Amino acid sequence: MASRQVQVYTPGGRDLNNVQRVVRTLIWFGVFFVLGILSLIIALILGSIYEPLGFVAFAFGGIISLVIPGMFSNSLYIIPEYQRVIVLKLGKFIGVKGPGRFWVIPYPPFYESVAANIDIRIQTRVITAAQTLTSDNVPVGCEAVIFWRVEDPQRAALSVANYQEAVFQAANSALKDTIGTLELSDLLGERDKVAHRLKEIIDTAAASFGVDVSSVEITDVHVPDDLIQELSVLAQSRRAAQAKIAEAEAEKMIVQKLDEASTLMSPRAMEMYRLNVLERIGREEGSQIVIYGLNGQDPELEKDMAATAAAAQLRDRRNI
Asked: Which pTM does this prediction carry?
């Protein structure tokens, strides 16, 4: 019906279509004033000729002055930028109107009517898949958010009874089907790829009723508690193994560097290095250093010094 009110409300409840209501009211009073003056003039003219005829004309003009302004003003629509109106003529689609001001006249010879008021802004919807089995038979729950908007108002209004519910059902089914084709590790570790795959599936299904899906984001994945503990143990084992591997790699690098250094050092340099090491050890409190056979030039001296050191250690132990 052309008299249908097209109103938009904010979350706070403020009517954004005040302009339409004000303009309709002004039109109503304007038409009422004009028709009232005309009715009065006609009634006075006819009353001067025949008095009863003047009363009939005045009554008839009063009725017309009350009915016609409402019919005329209710045919005006002022639609916000983010809305579109589907207009039919005798039940057949004739166009999408809006935004701005336009007329929808249901009276002959126009017979127009407003079939739907479509919001073309981006909207969000939360979809949930509870206790869905992955490809490795793990029951998980998954939540995602889809961002979508009406791209073709005509198709959204005429090809499906409830395009919002259709988007929700298509997204929910796509989420369950996608989870069933993935392993748990892929679902947990590759959310971006899963979300991109979901977006393509949902967008293909929603395009048939004029909706474009801009993006899909996976917000949460619910895993059973016992499985979480097993995954935690597995993760700790992997971290421990990686730490051991890293330690072994470091030792390997140290050995390689020492081997390279030994090939570069001459016998004299090696001897100086030994003396430096002994000096550093000797600085430590309570340390005892026995030096024998420096450079390995006197094997007999080396044996005597070793025997003396061994005898001294044996004597110290007996005294204790």
From this structure: 0.63
